Amino acid sequence: MNGEKIKNLAVLLAKSDTEKNVISILEQAGFWSDENAWREYDDNPINYSTIGNQQSNADTALVEKIINSVDAVMMRECLRKGIKPDGENAPKSIAGAQKDFFEIYNGKLSSIDASQRVNLSENILLVATGGKGSGKNPSKFLKHF
Question: What is the pTM of this model?
Answer without folding.
Answer: 0.55
